[in-house]
Write a structure and sequence with these properties.
The protein has 227 residues and is mainly alpha-helical. It has 9 helices and no strands. The two termini are 34 Å apart.
């Protein structure tokens, strides 16, 4: 399905499929816990606080990772490996303490790492594709692969949820995350061309985006804010 794009894309697709499949299993396991069982009348007052706590790290982690990856291109693959490996450990910890208050910080921990993986994956896609013109089709193919991976893993999640054993579903999630991390480890060395010219870097910082790009950014930010 994606072998024609080369070994780098194949490994990235495998890591992405494992990441989305693991996230699906975690969501299924949490569906049977207090995490999704709080009465709406009790939770309504905490919605704003919940949004602040969950969205603030995303707003901070994106720009930070962008600058970090630009400075250390070799960290692309490390971001995929670390985020998947840490989620494997987080899923195991959640399986142990799923009936305690630690459920909430561990679930939040997994949520942030999932976002971390997504940012790392988006940074790797242009590097593993031979032709930059394939960026849109490559991202679309990764999205389809993620959907397929999530669909195929659902029966394993139902095995634990059906027997009221969410820890079993989380165990499956940990195994899938390990597979995702191993797939990322197998990525070939990523070659990133870096312009070390001080003048070129200064010129890029001074250059402003075209009006159409700025307008698209504003529109996208407005839609996300309204959501």
């Amino acid at each position: 399905m994606f072998t024609s794009r080369g070994p780098g894309f194949r490994r990235l697709a495998q890591s992405h499929a494992g990441s989305t499949a693991g996230d699906t299993l975690v969501a299924m396991a949490l569906g049977t816990t207090l995490f999704f069982s709080v009465p709406s009348t009790d939770a309504r007052e905490n919605v704003a606080l919940y949004l602040l706590i969950t969205l603030a790290p995303f707003a901070l982690i994106g720009p930070f990772l962008g600058g970090f990856f630009a400075r250390f291109p070799g960290a692309y693959r490390g971001g995929l490996v670390v985020s998947s490996a840490l989620r494997a450990g987080g899923a195991l910890a959640l399986a142990i303490w799923i009936d305690t208050f630690l459920l909430f910080p561990l679930a939040f921990f997994l949520l942030v790492l999932s976002r971390f993986h997504g940012i790392s994956r988006a940074s790797v896609v242009p590097i593993v594709l031979d032709d930059p013109a394939d960026l849109i089709s490559g991202n679309a193919q990764l999205a389809r692969i993620g959907v397929v991976g999530s669909a195929l893993i659902v029966p394993f999640g139902l095995l634990g949820v059906g027997f009221d054993q969410p820890w079993l579903t989380l165990l499956f999630a940990a195994l899938v995350y390990v597979w995702s991390a191993l797939s990322a480890v197998g990525l070939p060395p990523l070659r990133v061309e870096r312009d070390r010219s001080r003048e070129a870097r200064a010129a890029r910082r001074r250059a402003s985006a075209p009006r159409e790009v700025r307008l698209a950014r504003f529109a996208t930010a407005g839609v996300r804010f309204l959501n």
